Amino acid sequence: MAIESNTALPDVAAWTMSKDFPSGHLIGAHRHREGQLIFAVAGVMELSTAAGLWLVPPQRGIWMPPDTEHSMRARGAVSLRTLYIQSPRYLAQLPHAPKAVVISPLMREIIIRLMRTSSIPPTDQKEGRLLDLLIDEIQWSGEAALPLPPLNDQRLQRVCSAILAAPGDKRGLNEWAEMVGASSRTLARLFQQELGVSYLYWRQQVCAMAALPRLGAGEPVTLIASDLGYETPGAFSSMFRRIMNTTPSQYFS
């Protein structure tokens, strides 16, 4: 059962919060009455909702709408910045579902500027203009989360859980199907039907996201590729580019 976090402030359109978390720190399932733009200036966050899973490095953020159950785990030490928005005027312009956003240089500077003001009253025109611009940036930006399986098929749940726990496991679709007592054709259909992507593409997404904390920590691509089951760094880099639209070496640059 999710805990409702009561962070709302009276007579305020938006406000900010800065927090640091050690590696492995877990914030369990909870929800807020207000919406959140969640952004880490350092470290990688793992954010999950019923709709998907995100591994969020500093160049990415997550818009979390009001009353959306979510949890967060720190992958490495995380320096977190959160902008809470409760003004109906601003919320009406923002997505009603969680959305991953690319933190552009402009958005990053706006967030840093807003962090200098702990709370923003509805009458503050200067800060209001910054919020308007930030909302435009959120609307223009975005990328897909890793879809997670619903609870209505235990076979798919078992396979996805096993892959998430060990992304470098080299078992193929036939072996996973045998493990859960299904045919490979049935399992392939479940991936398309329940997750909207093929088994291979979903697994590649898992590998790309599993690589992010390690790339952020400066580990060699050669070692990461080997641990994730790729024969060569080139094969891993090609996969990563297809999924993330950039190379491993350029992702954090």
Instruction: Count every helix, treating DSSP H or I runs of 4 or more residues as helices.
Output: 10
Portion of residues in beta strands equals 25-35%
- Biggest sheet overview: 9 strands, mixed
Shape descriptor? globular
Terminal residue distance: 39 Å
Structure description:
This protein is an alpha+beta fold. It has ten helices and nine strands. The protein has helices spanning 88-91, 105-115, 125-140, 154-165, 173-180, 184-195, 199-216, 221-227, 233-244, 248-251, and strands at 3-5, 14-21, 26-32, 35-49, 52-56, 60-64, 70-85, 99-102, 119-120. Strands 1, 2, 3, 4, 5, 6, 7, 8 and 9 form a nine-stranded mixed beta sheet that branches. A hairpin with a 2-residue loop joins β4 (35-49) and β5 (52-56). α4 (154-165) crosses α5 (173-180), α5 (173-180) crosses α6 and α8 packs across α9 (233-244). The longest helix has 18 residues, at 199-216. The termini are far apart. The mean pLDDT is 87.
Short description:
The chain has 253 residues and is of the alpha+beta class. It contains ten helices and nine strands. The protein has helices at residues 88-91, 105-115, 125-140, 154-165, 173-180, 184-195, 199-216, 221-227, 233-244, 248-251; strands spanning 3-5, 14-21, 26-32, 35-49, 52-56, 60-64, 70-85, 99-102, 119-120.
